[in-house]
Amino acid sequence: MEASGVHVVAHKNWSRTYYHGFTENPFNKMIDETYMDTRIYVVIGYHHEYVGLMTYMEERGLFRNGQYFVVGAHIDQYKPLEPEEYLRGALESGIDGLSLRAFRSYIGVIGSPSVYPEYEYFSEAVNRYLQSEPFNFANPFRTLQNPPPVILRPEAAYLYDAVYLYARAVHMAKSNGDNPLDGRVLINYMKHQKYMSAMGFMVATDENADAKGNYTLIAYKQLVRGAEPRYGLVPVGVFEHVDPADSTDVTGLPKLKLHDVIHWIGSGPPVDVPPCGFKGEHCVNENVIPIGNLPNF
């Protein structure tokens, strides 16, 4: 992170899964120990745990003027049909007002959701094969007049992508007269490649032939207006991978492309360090008279 210009002031962790409203909030002590020297927090964990961090910071009044902010690094894939889920704890049935106010000061980086209808076509094709020879898996909904769509877990798409990338590398090796049984040859054909994933979006591989992650930026938005408005976290941007051959950027980091507005509290995005420093050390108070200049009476 230091190489990318990010200075970490403090590193804290919690040992057990936090269930908001049911177990002791581990974030209270963390915030109390760090808020004087921090403005932007980055949290990594289960998204339902973030509610404890956000609501405590709201209770402390830290979000009031837009000086504090939280960035969540989600470990799962975005669920487009459940945007409200990200504003409540795992065991909560509803969203309280404190959470609604707190998440105005939050953005999250999360695995991109599958693209429809492409992923739906993939799921339908896989289900047809599963019901055929030699698998013969039974589908209890098959006899219904309007059977519900069966959407596969994303791991199925990852497996398909891996097999496809391997098969394409074998084809490229044979086409160029290389040995397709040499693993090192195949790995070289998998490096710096682009392909259409079964998830419905383009994927790129890095110098190790590993698939680069596809991530989405989510932020607080109003979902439904009216007498009973609803709120949730929805996509506002995507991270695009930059081809090293087409860019002078040596960091190798993806570029954020916003497609919606983020409504910041205050005049804009919060700064990582206040203009006068965390404790005002960079600003001179002209009303303070040095003791050495006091006249003698």
H-E order: HEHEHEHHHEEEEE
Q: Give the end-to-end Cα distance, rounded to a whole number of Å.
A: 57 Å
Q: Approximately how much helix is present in the residues? A: 10-25%
Shape: globular
Q: Which strand order spans the largest sheet, edge to edge or round the barrel?
A: 1-2-3-6-7-8
In total, the number of strands is 8
Helical segment tally?
6
- Please state the average pLDDT score: 89
Helix and strand composition category: alpha/beta
Poorly predicted runs: none
Largest sheet: 6 strands, mixed
Radius of gyration: 25 Å
Strand content: 15-25%
Brief characterization of the structure:
The protein has 6 helices and 8 strands. It is of the alpha/beta class.
Structure description:
By secondary structure, the protein is α/β, with parallel strands linked by helices. It contains six helices and eight strands, in the order αβαβαβαααβββββ. It has helices spanning 27-34, 50-59, 97-102, 118-130, 154-175, 183-190; strands spanning 40-45, 69-77, 106-111, 194-196, 202-204, 215-224, 230-240, 255-258. The strands form two sheets. A six-stranded mixed beta sheet has the order 1-2-3-6-7-8, with no helix packed on it. Helix 5 (154-175) crosses helix 6 (183-190). The termini are far apart.
Key structural traits:
297 residues; alpha/beta; 6-stranded mixed β-sheet; two-stranded antiparallel sheet; 8 strands; 18% strand; globular
